[in-house]
Amino acid sequence: xxxxxxxxxxxxxxxxxxxxxxxxxxxxxxxxxxxxxxxxxxxxxxxxxxxxxxxxxxxxxxxxxxxxxxxxxxxxxxxxxxxxxxx
Length: 87
Fold this sequence. Notes:
- This protein has 4 helices and no strands.
- It is mainly α.
């Protein structure tokens, strides 16, 4: 019997702790879009690898960007998605 190595996933690290110059603000939706799915849901920190402190700040800034209409709330609010009734 050959011994197989178990899959070892790459170690996740907080992108904002590693590079403190990365802007984490509602005014920068390009950075925030990396942490939101195409349906508009905020991605969990166990998937993104962001630390707890920055995940709280990230969530707050995403919600602010949604209020300012810089990010979408859901996929139905996106201009590229067409409603079934419009077809």
